[in-house]
Amino acid sequence: MGTVAQLPLSLQNLVVENVAIEECTLRPSITGQQQYGNNRPFCDFTVPNRTVCFRGIDTKRWQTGGAKLNQTKQLILCDWPTRTFDPLILTKLVPQLERFALTGRTLQRLVHHFPPLSKLRELNITGTRLNHTDANTFYELEQLKVLNLRGNELEQIQQYRFLSDHVNIYLQGNTWNCTNDMIWLLRERSEQYVDKSSWVCKDWKYTGRPVVTAMEYKRVVQESCQHEEIWNCTCHVSYLRLSDNGLSFHPMIMVNCSDRGFYQLPQYLPGNTTVLDIARNKLQLVDSLTTNEHYQTVQDIYLDDNQITSIDILEDTIWLDHFRILSLRGNKLNRIRVYSVEHAMERNPGVGKLYLSNNPWRCGCRFAIRFQRFLRKHESLVADTRNITCYFINDDDGRKQYLPVLTLTPNDICRASEHNTAAFYNTLSIIFASLIVLIFTKLGYDYYRYRKYGKLPWLIMKMP
């Protein structure tokens, strides 16, 4: 991934050039407005063969307009008034068309592909809300040399097909959604997309990132995902984080290996993998989180519905001190070292969520009480606290009985002997704590008397 970070970057919303069609910045003549009304279509024919129309085309007036309109070679449609435009009307109205321009913020869709206009060389659709074209939209324009689609609302395009040998395509200023796959832009044939280096992503995930850079990262990640360890997993770039120096990006990669039949954590992950979903497999161990360098960057891991029986190996590890999401729902955990997990969560400033429900937690007297205290203390971080239950064996019928951990009491789970023992130790702890406080208080008092009056404690005076 290191070579990708050296790609040229631009985070500025570049000024979109050549969106405004010069002819459309001129106001219709006063005579024309008076003749056809302010809101009706109006066309102005100028010598030798150019026609500029505002607010659409009145086809009836056009067809009765004489030979001069039919000989139009340059047609500019300004302020197009409807959401759709049908290119097929061009064959009937302007069969000699060489240059065509269309603009207007109301336009959203082309009804048909462009028909075979044998002389059309330049096509401009700019400054509209056009949001879709397909590979064959301009295919039949055999003489086309320039296709200008700047400043529209295209989110994704397929590689265009043309009958003509070479077309210069301009697409700057569209609202590119870089979660879509446009990796084909990196191929040699895409050189006809002249301004692709200035395309900028507009979606929430990649906003402000150059489209080509985003696609380059996606290509590298797809290739990395072909590794034999994870060939049946899927990988994608979930976010491109700008480096501190502003000169490169750090990709955040998500790998999805759920429902793939894994018996152990894969030994390979693409560099910069931050999220791993490996739910619904047959994992029993999580030791790779502490021993495999590929897991150093993994912050979110979803281990739901596996066969994990213990996470004790994570105790006092760097990974546990830096995780963000750890999901262990639906495994075979019956106990954890509560103090270890709690200390890790207190040391970890970036901890987000921990999921522990749907495990066969055992309602041992001491463990259950500690577990309950932990859940109550960290209820905001243990997202499924209210769904966590533990079980004990009913003495009467030998069946498992489940209780919500948050609401259980010692009487629910502790036998009389266990309860008395726990109560004894609690009382003893209180006594020892009180004695320690008294001893320190007495020491402080004796020190004060000695410093102020020079008197030693009574016990010291009586000692031989």
From TrEMBL:
It is a single-pass membrane protein. Keywords: Cell membrane, Disulfide bond, Ion channel, Ion transport, Membrane, Signal, Transmembrane, Transmembrane helix, Transport. It holds the Pfam family LRR_8. GO terms for biological process: monoatomic ion transmembrane transport. The chain crosses the membrane at residues 423-445. It comes from the Eukaryota. Coiled coil: none annotated. Gene3D superfamilies: Ribonuclease Inhibitor. Its main location: membrane. It is found in: Cell membrane. GO terms for cellular component: plasma membrane. This is Protein singed wings 2.
